[in-house]
Specification:
mainly alpha; two-stranded parallel sheet; two-stranded antiparallel ribbon; 9 helices; 47% helix
Length: 176
């Protein structure tokens, strides 16, 4: 049975979706897809959800979601089934606990889709992170989604252009 998004949530400035511990553990997206999948985005919902969706993760109290193994798996699965984050994700609220990359929610989600290699420099002991090329594809798709979904809305050209600038700003944290 598909779950409808209550009308009062569509009018609020933020729509929070919390993934439970069990959903994170199992990589289960069923509840999310029933609420926000393509079949639920008709009837003007696309415009009302623009930039409002915030993800939280039960039991993930600290640290970056991009380095949390179970959350990475969950968000990779989400990205495989639901590519709309560039349009719907609230870019001013952290993705999970407010920690480093989480402050850039689209970037944090993109990092979950990319291969990461974390290590230390031999002579300095500093930590480094190598990010796989998938991050470039994720960013490009975020821009394409905005262009695709804008056609289903009455959002102004200025609003859409600002969204593209906001997406770019998310990835400047890693000079991308």
């Amino acid at each position: 049975m598909k779950k409808k998004i209550p009308v009062q949530f569509l009018k609020s400035p933020v729509i929070l979706h919390t993934f439970t511990r069990d959903q994170i553990e199992r990589g289960d997206l069923t509840d999310f897809i029933e609420k926000f999948g393509e079949g639920q985005l008709g009837g003007g919902r696309v415009e009302h959800l623009f930039g409002k969706l915030v993800f939280k993760f039960e039991g993930v109290e600290e640290g970056g979601v991009a380095t949390h193994p179970k959350v990475r798996v969950l968000l990779r699965r989400l990205n495989d089934r639901w590519r709309w984050s560039g349009f719907f994700l609230n870019l001013s609220e952290p993705l999970g606990p407010p920690d480093t990359f989480n402050l850039y929610p689209l970037l944090a989600l993109g990092l979950c889709t990319a291969d990461l290699k974390i290590g230390t420099w031999d002579n300095t002991g500093r930590t480094f992170i190598r990010i796989g090329s998938q991050i470039h594809q994720f960013k490009d798709i975020a821009h394409m989604v905005v262009e695709h979904l804008r056609k289903e809305t009455k959002l102004s050209h200025a609003v859409i252009q600002q969204r593209h600038r906001d997406i770019e700003q998310q990835f400047k944290a890693i000079n991308l």
